[in-house]
Design brief:
The complex is a heterotrimer. Chain A is of the alpha/beta class. Helix content of chain A is 34%, strand content 15%. By secondary structure, chain B is an alpha/beta fold. Chain B has two domains: 3-246, Rossmann fold (3-Layer(aba) Sandwich); 254-387, Rossmann fold (3-Layer(aba) Sandwich). In chain B, helix 1 crosses helix 2 (34-45) and helix 3 (59-71) runs parallel beside helix 4. The chains are: A alpha/beta, B alpha/beta, C alpha+beta. Strand 9 of chain B pairs antiparallel with strand 1 (9-10) of chain C.
Chain lengths: 308, 396, 85
């Protein structure tokens, strides 16, 4: 085995403690490649924070701060204010946090930041549950997913509510740029991050980051599962600018939601002896609605959408 | 000639904060601190204050914004009271651990429920475990001076902790007193620009907020205690330095008032100390051997200075506007902990006064002195804290 | 390691923690099949694939053996082999 130099140019290096095949770690590596190193990153408590900050071992090659769980956006707002006061506005501020700290406990702080229009690019690395603590239900958990606080059981099919439509809520705050992306489509993610960096004001990108450990699939299939989510329509990838959808990533080859669901342990209860037939139909209807709403199929021609 | 104005306490604080040239101010309204942040907003709107002003959506964010700006290397400030201070609790603990300096005015107000906007010290006292340095003031002048000192204390390289200046809601914030202002140049000389030990710097990337395993966590917490103990010395030095410039001496960690030879020594914080001084003067003139120790710096707790001031007394009567439910008043407990076991220690009695704006008037103070004298004669201590001035007809 | 003020830590200090010992399988690259497309380098969550002199090399100090590089390689040039203890 030859000894080689690890590239020091990356702002997110090896040695972090993410699980094997972590979609979040992969996304963050590429996010920082897209932003460059003149950034300060804030993370609320969560997987990302925990696997990157055991005392003494940090993979962050940019200044990074973790304060608390519910105040990622407010910490970011404070940093932006300081940079303005110090006339260091060429340094940009990113907040990268999980769905727990973004959809739920950090929601108020996020709303305040957006309402003020603070110049922060907020990226939610969304694995649909409180994964750091073992997979409890969050506002981002998809319908009928089994989580440890809303598990499938004799009397339950897992989460009954919908996934909170956070991109829409954020767009309604007047954020100039809102996008969804996926760890499975790295170039698309990078492009969206780069675009967001050209804009000043509050911007948001939600990245679907599959989690092999808790979603329940082998670690080498992280990108495969991510692709299935996009190709079945449950994970729509789009950009919104000034409140209107301006581009979508068209589905290459549409697949039924079943292909996505049966690839993951968190939905396995839907395949036990036909118990989940009704639920799978409902999930399919959600995918259908997404496809219609965002015009995700290639043959759709709508005035304002563009193909990728 | 010194610049003297007659103005509302809140306004005096706003002028003090402005003089310190903060980079970032965050603001969320709550009675009775709101006049402070409003005054600062108007100064900014009129081009008199060059600070970033962030109007947040909760006190949690108010404290968080200034934590972020402090980590980025900027002098930062906010103000709150009561419910707002409690909401900030988690943020303050975290910023203490991260050693992020900033200044907060804790305008004292009672805590729900029942909801009350009147003054007592329960709010800031509730934060006493956090590691935030706490200075209590008796007057608007003292508030003005304390804020200027507070930034220097917080940002001191051997301290690096948030400092809370605690001032009584309404009594100090909304009353008008004469306040003597420092010259801008004097403040600038006393308080140069913030030079952080380290900050969020893209040229030298570091990581804040790591998690600590059981092999290091205790040492981290101990290092905060060490900083607080060191702070006692530095706070004295900083107050003394300021005092030489202004010609005003409010005392250092404590102020002693006619304690020499006093048999009964009262211990108190905040504006009630002013009333107590009047009563002490009158009682002394009538031959009662009584004095007052006003605690200015409550955290870190100045037990060495307190001991020196009270050791000759026969009885110490702590008068406090706070209570630790199920136990005793916090200040009484802090003092008793340090006095316990010392040979020839005075008797320490704990009196609860002034909760929810209940007036701490001459009658109450004289009542405390009388109870203290009785206990001194009978050599008897209190089984429970003595709640002064309760209306027995309304307690079921 | 001494504690720091505020527990502040130097960036990139994780390079001292070799996650390679997490593996129970390791990727082995067949250089002849490799088309140098860059997919493996792109998809590694642990930055454990490097390009050195136009050759793709696995950094076994940090590779956790997740298998993404092997799964995603369009040339099937990477095989996951059980780690020998």
């Amino acid at each position: 085995m030859e000894k080689k130099a690890v590239p020091q140019s990356d702002a997110f290096v090896s040695g972090h403690r993410a699980c094997q095949g972590c979609g979040m770690a992969l996304s963050v590596k590429h996010i920082l490649r897209a932003t460059g190193n003149e950034v300060i990153v804030v993370s609320p408590t969560g997987c990302l924070e925990t696997f990157t900050s055991p005392y003494g071992f940090s993979p962050w090659g940019v200044p990074w701060i973790h304060h608390l769980f519910e105040n990622g956006p407010a910490i970011a707002s404070g940093i932006v204010a300081a940079l303005r006061a110090q006339k260091r506005e060429h340094v940009r501020v990113l907040a990268i946090g999980g769905d727990g700290g973004t959809f739920d406990i950090g929601f108020g702080s996020l709303s305040g930041m957006l309402e003020r229009g603070d110049d922060v690019l907020y990226i939610c690395v969304d694995n649909g549950a409180y994964m750091n603590t073992g997979g409890q239900r969050s506002g981002a958990t998809p319908t009928y997913s089994s989580t440890t606080t809303e598990p499938a059981g004799k009397m339950s099919r897992g989460k009954t509510q919908l996934k909170k439509d956070l991109p829409m809520i954020i767009a309604a705050h007047g954020a100039p740029y809102v996008a969804t992306a996926s760890a499975a489509y790295i170039k698309d993610l990078q492009k969206k991050v780069k675009k967001a960096m050209t804009i000043r004001g509050s911007r948001y990108i939600q990245v679907d980051t599959p989690c092999p450990s808790v979603w329940g699939f082998p670690s080498e299939r992280t990108l495969e599962v991510g692709r299935l989510g996009v190709e079945c329509g449950l994970v729509p990838l789009f950009e919104m600018e000034e409140g209107r959808v301006t581009s979508v990533k068209k589905i290459k080859k549409r697949i039924p939601v079943e292909n996505y669901l049966k690839a993951q342990g968190r939905f396995k209860h839907l395949f036990a002896e036909g118990h989940g037939v009704k639920e799978i139909k409902e999930i399919q209807a959600m995918a259908d609605a997404n496809i219609k709403r965002y015009q995700l199929l290639k043959e759709d021609k709508a005035g304002k959408t563009t193909t990728r | 000639m010194r610049n003297v104005k007659v103005l509302e306490g809140s306004e005096a604080v706003a002028f003090a904060v402005k003089a310190c040239r903060p980079h970032v101010i965050s603001a969320y309204p709550i009675s009775p601190q709101t006049h402070i942040v409003e005054r600062l907003a108007q100064m900014r709107a009129d081009g008199e204050l060059d600070a970033e002003y962030v109007r947040v959506e909760s006190e949690f964010s108010a404290a968080s914004v200034i934590s972020g700006s402090s980590a980025a290397g900027s002098r930062s400030y906010t103000a709150s009271s009561s419910q707002g201070l409690l909401l900030m609790t988690e943020v303050l603990y975290a910023s203490v651990g991260l050693r992020l300096p900033f200044v907060i005015t804790g305008v004292n107000r009672a805590i729900s429920a029942p909801i009350s906007i009147q003054v007592d010290h329960q709010d800031t006292i509730s934060l006493r475990d956090s590691g935030v340095i706490q200075i209590y003031v008796e007057s608007s002048q003292e508030a003005y001076d304390a804020h200027i000192a507070a930034f220097k204390i917080a940002e001191d390289p051997g301290i690096l902790l948030p400092v809370m200046v605690c001032m009584d809601g309404w009594i100090l914030t909304h009353s008008y007193e004469r306040v003597s202002f420092m010259e801008e140049a004097e403040v600038d000389r006393f308080l140069p620009a913030f030079r952080p030990l380290h900050f969020l710097d893209e040229k030298n990337p570091k990581t804040w907020g790591s998690y600590a395993e059981d092999n290091v966590l205790m040492e981290f917490k101990y290092s905060v205690q060490k900083a607080m103990l060191h702070a006692k010395t530095r706070i004295k030095e900083i107050f003394s330095e300021l005092s030489k410039i202004t010609g005003r001496d409010h005392g250092d960690l404590i102020e002693t008032y006619r304690t020499k030879g006093a048999e009964v020594v009262l211990v108190a914080m905040g504006s009630m100390a002013g009333t107590i001084k009047d009563v002490v003067d009158r009682l002394r003139s009538e031959g009662t051997s009584v004095g007052l120790v006003k605690i200015r710096c409550y955290r870190p707790f100045p037990h060495e200075d307190l001991w020196e001031a009270i050791k000759g007394a026969r009885v110490v009567a702590v008068m406090e506007a706070d209570f630790s439910m199920g136990s005793e008043g916090a200040v009484g407990m802090d003092l008793k902990a340090k006095v316990c076991g010392r040979p020839d220690a005075p008797l320490v009695l704990d009196f609860i006064t002034g909760l929810g704006g209940r007036e701490v008037n001459q009658e109450i103070i004289e009542g405390v002195v009388a109870e203290a004298q009785k206990a001194m004669i009978n050599k008897s201590t209190f089984v429970e804290s003595c709640w002064m001035g309760l209306d027995p007809t309304i307690v079921p | 390691m001494k504690i720091t003020v505020g527990a502040v830590v130097q960036g990139k200090s994780s390079l001292a923690y070799k996650t390679g010992n997490w593996r129970d399988q390791r990727p082995v690259l067949d250089v002849d099949r490799c088309k140098a497309c860059g997919q493996c380098e792109e998809v590694c969550p642990d930055s454990a694939v490097h390009v050195i002199n136009e050759t793709y090399v696995i950094d076994y100090d940090f590779c956790k053996g997740c298998g993404l590089c092997a799964y995603e390689c369009p040339a099937q040039a990477i095989e996951m082999v059980k780690e020998e203890k």
